[in-house]
Request: fold
Amino acid sequence: MSGPLVIGLGALDRGDDAVGAAVAAAVARRLSGVTVVVHEDPTGLLDVWAGRSPVVIVDAIRSGAAPGAVHRFEIGGGEPGAWARSAYGGTHAIGLAEVVDLARALGRLPGRLVVVGVEAERFDHGAPLSEAVAAAVPTAAARVCEELGHVPR
Amino acid sequence: MTHSNKDGGHVLHVGTLARVEGEGAMHIAYRDGQVSDVQLRIYEPPRFYEAFLRGRSYTEPPDITARICGICPVAYQTSSCWAIEDACGVTVTDEIRSLRRLLYCGEWIESHALHVYLLHAPDFLGYDGAVDMAADHPAVVERGLRLKKAGNRLMEVVGGRSVHPVNVRVGGFYRFPTAAELRGLRPDLERALDDAAETVRLVAGFEFPDFEQPYEYLALRAEAGYPIEAGSPVTTSGASFAVREFAARIEEVQVPHSHALHARLDGGERGPYAVGPLARYTLNADRLSPVARQAAREAGLGDTCRNPFRSIVVRAVELVEACREALRIVDAWTGDGPASVPVPPRAGEGYGASEAPRGVLFHRYVLDDTGIIRDAQIVPPTSQNQAGIEADLRSMVGAWSDLDEHALQHRCEHAIRNYDPCISCATHFLDLTVERS
Reply:
């Protein structure tokens, strides 16, 4: 498989962690001919994105900005340390940041990798998207479409 | 936690990317060079789910509890199915039991590969994490990823998808895979068996601190084979009891420093107890398949193993066992028979247990006559191990108190990782607070 890929990352019933899946679904409704997947396990990304470019990952983010704020950043292939790793000392799963660094170390980063993040408010078990994050889904979806060279409808 | 990104000369500090949803903290206090207090503070989602399950239908626990953990959903599904079926007085067919075991093998392969290669091996090889290790040992990390993928693939084919399998239901499965579908897994599983054997050779060469745990070990013992999806509890003190007795034998007590409950066996009269690979191996080494037993012998393991640092070797041996078992079940699979048995609701109490990758997971449900859940109890492996983890740290930290904070944190994390703890699912980090006085 080749060509563009959109990945909505996150757990579905952990509050705003589901925003990746919600944005992915919105993108799938707007675009045809672009593969859109929802994925929960970051370590599986190396196989999911194999051979694909550009790849846009949509995930929830916490940076201190207002809930619902949309972030966008591109992951460079040749800048080790450009994205500070956070998962050191982790006891369990491995996060997106570490998987990106792992892929870089193994030469398995996509040619172009963009992260579109939505500032999250809460990650409660069983909770739906918060109001601010749900309201940001169309904006984030439009951003993903722009990344792939499509004018949002 | 901070992520930063240089993009066009700008630095964007992004606090926490989601999927970091729990809390894990360790508190260590020293007084006059002696450890005065060690507390592992963890947040445990099962507590939330116990309340959430009350009032729900008896058919829902496999789907609901699978969401507790992204790494061990099959454990939650399997223990909940056994418990509900027990409450309803239903026994499943041998084919359903076999498929549960096969699905569970996929989870063991996936979970153990992740832990051995990406989380634990860097501790032994002197790296801060898998990324640094991958730069120097790419083939090793690729082998770990390949193994994990084989486990995920097995879970996809049997369970419908890998992270939270959707094919599991009370009474069995929604559909049986065909014989041809399972045969299609053979090449991946054969490669995984080779990779698992190579894993044992790799980790057997690590250096292990001398440390022996005196604790009582508790694991399941199955009617035949190594305990994976089922069995009855046995312990190294000679105790054995039916799964139905677990609530009477294992008591969960609240400790002030943790959201999690600490578990005590038989009132704690014999001190802490531990579950997990060391307990399984020590109580079931005779049940390993010949190929796994041979791998264990070549790795220098005896009939028992009480050094928590060597748990990585036992996990590697269990990878061999899980791959071997998966191949055996795949080869024997016909796909015949009903994929599930009817489970009519009735009032009663049911108990279930299975060996999650990190140790025994107990479930108990009380149903009314319409199948509504009136009470739910989940005793996860990490709460059973918590007292043991703290006792390990107390013993070890005294010897390490001259280390600087970074080195001490690393050692302590290594000691905690020996247990592959489930400190809330997908928790990525551990904060360390050291008080020196």
